[in-house]
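Reading is simple: each integer encodes one residue's backbone shape. The lines below illustrate:
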Amino acid sequence: MARHYGFSLDTPWKDLPPLIPAIILNGSGSEVIRLTFQDGRKSYDVNKTFNGVVGNLNRRLLQTESAWMREELSKYQSSAPCETCNGDRLKPEALCVKIADTTISDATRLSVVDAHAWFGSLADKLSDQQRQIAKAILKEINERLGFLNNVGLDYLNLNRTSGTLSGGESQRIRLASQIGSGLSGELYVLDEPSIGLHQRDNDMLLATLKRLRDLGNTVLVVEHDEDAIRTADHIIDMGPGAGVHGGEIVAQGSLADIEAAEGSLTADYLTGRREIPVPAKRRKGSGKKLTVKGASANNLNKVTASLPLSTFTCITGVSGSGKSSFTIDTLYAAAARTLNGARIVAGKHDKIEGLQFLDKVIDIDQSPIGRTPRSNPATYTGAFTNIRDWFAGLPESLARGYKPGRFSFNVKGGRCEACSGDGLIKIEMHFLPDVYVTCEECKGARYNRETLEVKFKGKSIADVLDMTVEDAVEFFKAVPPIRDKMAMLAEVGLGYVKVGQQATTLSGGEAQRVKLAKELARRSTGQTLYILMNPPPACISRMSGNCSKCSTRWWNRATALS
């Protein structure tokens, strides 16, 4: 291409002739280019059109069926309003239709609360005939907008895309639709609907749940929120601990029955016998600041804010106030581009000052630590590499010539080939969800018989993966590289999780704590910005100075933004 169009490959992009960048991106169109290919010592010429970088990426995106490849290609994509319709999505003919001088596009740009007010006053702007025609439809629209308003979604624009909604917002939209359906005799099951909600929005959520109940439905909520527990008509307290330490009903009944129960941690906190202590003193930090200026992403209005470094800073506010837009879309994205070399596009802002005081930024979110059953806490934290090395160094392994790869369920040799190291066999049901059954060959152990014959303290590597983290800490107490990683998992409250537990079975909070443990186990540079979105209490307690080990590993050398 450079030879054909007469430009140098060493020329900076901004200095290229005017038409060249467009040709590189979009292709040469119908113009044929003579391309020279090298095959060993021979070279040959091919005449063809050049598709361009964008065309090449589009072709790969359309042809691939791999989710991983689609995720990789998405790094080169960003969204922008359509140049033809300016984001209205409709043809000019459709936008010519107006009601009270307002197009359908103008109406859907309104927030729920503004739309509710506009549609509520619309009848006064119509003629008698139009009012008669619109009566039924306006009643439906106002009722549905009222339901959205009542569940605390008054700030959402009607044209907001579903992919930009948080989990809590999506759940409340579904709740509003169920209230609007007017069904009774239904069983509604909600899993922690209060996650990420401000207390104001939490009150609205509880009012909505009570309204569902009053319609004649049964509402079952899995919840930790104190207000939800106190509002419930009947409470079931599970415990007494987590994982292998739980699985029992500690108490059930009314709020008074729970508070009177002995051995219930829930009762201890409800009655005040236990409480989360308020820190006696607050850290002042290093005196350095990270300042975001002119942040305008989404609903942010030229926000400027300074964050003290070497402290634990909390960003709070009602749902939809712009917390995620400021923290993730702007601050994290811009810092990741500068410090980590990421390709992520930052939200609109003027500039960020103070990044020179940091060497990296880490976002510890609640996304899964792996998308397949092969991922687990041991593989994610790197402990599995140490475990495989340890088993490969045992006398039995040395005598048989086993290398660390023998103890991996991802490569051939030591794994069970009947299930390819999954421990499960997937049975495709075509029009029904796939069914997984335990492998009959290895009985779920993942390894073949020869590999399982190598044992340490009477335990095979399959037995180690089946241990809980707290058991692994004791089992490997003489092996510091493994013990320290397992101890860090236990410190963040995951002692009950199995070492080889499949990543797909971990909750969002558990996945976040695994990521936190991995970061805490690393040697700190003292210049890292950690960002956590809605972290579970177990993360906060380890970060707040209550744990002496975390206060030295975390607080004295890092900045945390929650």
